[in-house]
Design goal:
This protein is α+β, with helices and mostly antiparallel strands. It has helices at about 1-35, 160-165; strands at about 50-60, 65-75, 80-95, 100-110, 120-125, 135-155, 170-175. The N and C termini lie far apart (about 55 Å).
Length: about 180
Amino acid sequence: MTISRLLTGLALATALVSIAPATAQAATAQAATAQDGTGPATTGTTASQGAGPWGTYYAPGRRAKTKGSLTVSGEDHAVIPAAELGRISGKVYDLTRGPSCGWAVFRLTYRTADGKNLPFKHRSVVDCSYGTPKSFTFTQRDLYQVELKVCSEARASKPSLNCLYAGSWKVLYVSK
C-alpha cells in the first residue's frame, strides 16, 4: 500500500514538473503580446513597463474606483535608480450614494538628495460626489516607486489607518 502511494506521489510530482515550464512560457508570451499591443489588454501597469495607463482599480466591495496614467522621464541609474520626474494623473470615482467617499492613496518612494535613502510619502485624492469623478495630477522628483490603494470611507483630512495599512498595495511603477 505504501509503495502505491509513493508511486502516485512521484507521478504527480513528475506531471507538475513537466507542466510548470509550459505554463510559465505561455504566461510570458501572453504578457509580451499584451505589452506590444497585439494581444489582450491588461489592467494596470506592471513594474516592468515603467509608464503608461493604469487601472481600473476598485476599493473592497467596489464602492470606489480609480484609473489614470503615469509618465516618467530621465531615469538615472546611479547608486539607487530613480526617474528624474514622475507625473501621475487620473480620476477617482465615488460609487456610493451614501456618506462614504472614494479615496485613491498613493505611496511615493523617492531617492533623497544624497542618493542613499528611499523614504516614502503618501499622496491622497478624495471624491465624495457620486456620479462626478474627481480629476487629479501631481508630480514627484527622483521617483523610485509608485504604489496605490483604493478605499471607500468617510470624508476626513487624511485616509484612515485601516485604509493605509489593511490589505496590499498595487505597484504601478518601479525604477530599474
